[in-house]
Amino acid sequence: GLSTQPIWRKLWDDVMKTRPPNSENITCWRKKFLETFFSNVLHGVLDVSSDWRLNDHHFSPLLHSSPHVSQLTLCNMLQGAVELTAAHNQKVLENLAGSLRILKFQHLLSSDQSIRRSLVLLLHRLIHHGSVSQVSMYSWPVPDTVLLVLILSMSAGFWRSGNALTYHSSPCGLCREEDKAQSQESAQERAERGHCDEREWSDGETQKGFPRASEEADAEVNRCRADTCLNSVLSRPRSPLQNQACEETSSKVPCDHTSVQEGSSHCISDQLSCHPVLRKTRRRLKSVVGKKRRCLRRSRGPYADPEDLYDFVFTVAREDNSGLVDKNSTTERENAENWTSSSPGSPCTGHAGCKKRGSAGIFSLKAAHRFRSISTLELFSIPLTGDTCRTLSNLLSSWVSLENLVLSYNGLGANIFCILSGLRALSRHSDCHLRVVRVSDVFSHMPCMELVRCILSAFPQLHTLSVSFDLKNQLEGNRPEGNPNCSDAEIPESCLEQLEIRFPREPLHTTFLQPVLKASKSLQQLSLDSATLPCSQELGLLLEVLKECNPHLKKLSFHDMNLAEHQKEVLLLLQDPILQEITFSFCRLFESSNTEFLSEIINTVKRNSSLKSLKLPGNRLGNHRLVALADIFSEDSSSSLCQLDVSSNCIKPDGLLEFTKKLEGHIQQRGGQIQFTHLRLFQNWLDQDAETAQEALRRLKAVCSVVNDSWDSSQAFADYISVM
């Protein structure tokens, strides 16, 4: 019954010798220590020989801590991948395959072939045969296209067909076991089918010159022959034309069987020899089998060309009919950069923002074996070129296991249409699991509301949709050919629960937002950021739509919107009996108001028993307004407010101390019965009088949880002046 948390906390201080980031949010010091310990040893940050408790040749730091690692970050030259795939760390890799859930890549640099090969082995073990469900990539200003495509494709579960992967110059053991199990199952199925066919054929003893007793028996033999030929030999799907040719040929050309006892395989061979279509198919099957055998023989040893990773990454076949082209038609690097699927229904159809370069170098997804794939993909600050976007689009088109997609500051531009094309193709899969989509960038290439409608019309099953842009692209109106306007797309009733829109200083038109809100009956959170209000009635219209269409809305947030002239609407929101959290962030609430408006806000909140959280950062409260807000918790208040955010409000230490004293008085009057639990004070002027600020914070922490920072207000003011 004793907690070991203090012991692990002390171990952190003794071994790490650093202050852990966000220590107040750490719930399990054991997990935090072992996870950080593993990462520091792996990347050479921690020298185990410096601690006498760890300097033991019988002790393997990586092996000991690996079962406790659920999150791992690989950086720079991917040295960690090389170390983990080394022969002496095979057991460590097996442990990670069972424990690791999140794999992160940060600040990657271009790497040589041997390092990339180690990464291949690592991803294959941790994703395809492991438990990794999330891959996140951060801050890669100039990404290596081949390396990026490699990570994306293996995250999607695609890899070269056959036993092309090797582990220490031998095929992957887990792949061998799976192939062996599948081969045994197939052999058993063939044996059972052959036994059934032989039994049924033995019942049809009548051949030419041996008439059967009834016409029904003849029909049974014919049916059995047809089923045997089509099911045993042509088990793969055929086109209607081929099926028609097969039927016509089988009706015109007789097939004599001189020996029934030779078994069904001999019969099938005879059937093939006397049917032109089947005979042609058999030749093609033999050719494919021969190729596969040669491939398997080659894959048993090291790679044919150790200096060419691209052929290792991208399989290029020679059958143009299957959407593949000859590898000599382009260089391997072009294969990497032009990797798209040319199968029918390919999601990326080619337009100004998504140009295909013909068929040269195309790698079809059909040529890759499909392994287990991740459910969460996050790309932060990684520029995506047109080629990379086409790759991602084609991966997305069949990535049915994907549940969360985050694309943040990737410089998409017109390539957003290519991504949308892949998402639309994905939406046509009945087993699609996508539930969260977040897209953010500097420039928008299409209006925010149009993008929202486009995504939501294709994915009504989404639970969270976030669209965020900083600036409006001046060329936004120039839409690439082949991309229809989504503003009129019909939105079916959706499962959307959270909607976040950051407008690049666009006007908020309720008429455009209304269809989205009307289709989202289950909406619980709505956030509107950086929108302008074209007229004074616009916010009132929005509130009416929300009241009518979204009865379950619990959280509403406005950020960087001028609400100084919308005092009536602000008070209506604070009166709402359904909303539990309201945010007015940098909305200039008190820019042109008088003291009466603040009093009305306080009285409204005091009467609202459903409101739990009120966030007012960046509204120039100052000392006197902060002190007035303490009356929300007075003796005559029925408020249930638990959280109050007054960050960035020019609050000084003396004002905070006065607020604290007034709050203490109200608590005493109420006999200590108060629900207030959290106060946020980020970026206020508390550094102007450190002693007073410390006293105020000390007294406040006896009442509630206080979150603040050591903010230098003088430097921040200087920065503000410098950019004016």
From TrEMBL:
Biased composition (Basic and acidic residues): 183-206
GO cellular component terms, A-Z: cytoplasm; nucleus
The keyword Phosphoprotein appears for this protein: yes
Keyword Phosphoprotein in record: yes
Domain of life, per lineage: Eukaryota
Region listing for Disordered, in residue ranges: 183-211, 325-344
UniProt keyword annotations, A-Z: Leucine-rich repeat, Phosphoprotein, Repeat, Ubl conjugation pathway
UniProt name for this protein: Leucine-rich repeat-containing protein 41
Origin species: Charadrius vociferus
Organism phylogeny: Eukaryota, Metazoa, Chordata, Craniata, Vertebrata
